[in-house]
Amino acid sequence: MKFKIGFVSNVYEKKNNDHIESTPAADRGTPRKSVVQVMFPGRGCSLTYYNDQFDLRVGDFVYVDGKLEGQRGRVTDVAYAFKIKVSDYKRVVALVDTAVKGQFFFAGSHLVTFDREVIPTGKVSTWFNAPAKEGDEYVCGKDDQTFRLDDPKGMKVSPEIAERGYDYYMGSNVTYIAIDGNHGYAIVEGSKPYEVEFDYCSGEIGNLTCSCYCSYHCKHEVAAMLQLKETLKIIEKHYAEQYERTGYFAAILKETLFTFAVNGQEHGSLTLN
What's the alpha-carbon Rg for the chain, to the nearest Å? Predict the structure, then answer.
């Protein structure tokens, strides 16, 4: 069974009778000055910000500067008629692009696509983490240690970490996982979203790292590997041809896709076949 999905936010262009393309944030109109109310569910507060960089609308996910820098918020109100002292307000610094267009297939708790343009890693990563600031520097080391995906003992983790990783996996904490060629990427929800990266080739895992910066394999990595194993098993059983054709897949938790790409949208359509 396949799952076709298309969404819009206020502005849309109808292409045919059953599919509507969304308008990416990058393709919106000229930035419009506004004062916006932003709700931060993780902090249980709502604050007001000045915006002069984006064409913001109610329902947009944004990042701001100030004390809540790095925290994702959602716009709940937009005012265009205002007069303020700019120095009294912090600003909206990033608009999250949640436009999604493409075909998905059911894969257990997740939906999977084999089209690189549907939910690319670069887009989805900003759903969870603020874009890097100018001047931020990240480095990643590599080693030559590998293990088989079908042999969990190869990770050489303690029973405690293995159990906690299994709990994360069973709790659907792996919200996104993708493989493009030989490179893999996953987002695992913990005390905050963590990014797991790895190499994958013919069932072999190498260069497994996590942004929690542990000096050993962690629970987030264990959870990601368990989710990878499950997803690949489903793909092999039902969608081997699609995966072989593109050498790519991205799987996203159903609830996550709906939270970002469906909830709060006022226009659009959803087609199930």
Answer: 20
Quick: pLDDT tens for 228-246: 999 999 999 999 999 999 9
> Of 77, 95, 113, which residue is a domain's last?
95
pLDDT, one tens digit per residue, over 107-130 is: 999 999 999 999 999 999 999 999
CA 14, chain centre distance (Å): 26
Range of the domain at 40: 25-95
Residues 193, 108: one domain?
yes
Return the structure tokens found at 225. Answer: 């590997």
Tell me the whole-structure pTM to 2 decimals. Answer: 0.85
115 with 91, same domain: the answer is: no
Number of domains in the chain: 2
Q: Which residues contact 101 (CB under 8 A, 6 or more apart)?
A: 5, 6, 7, 21, 22, 117, 118
Q: Which amino acid is at 267?
A: H
How far is 39 from 45, CA to CA, in rounded Å? 6
264 burial (CB, 10 Å; 0-12 / 13-18 / 19+) is middle
Is residue 266 a part of any domain in this protein? no
CA distance 246 to 161: 34
> Do 111 and 226 sit in the same domain of this protein?
yes
Give the model confidence (pLDDT) of 245-265 as tens digits: 999 999 999 999 999 988 766
Does residue 36 sit in the same domain as residue 136?
Answer: no
**Domain assignment of residue 247, yes or no:** yes
Two tokens, residue 273:
């076949």
13-72 per-position pLDDT tens digit:
333 333 323 445 556 779 999 999 999 988 899 999 999 999 999 999 999 999 999 999
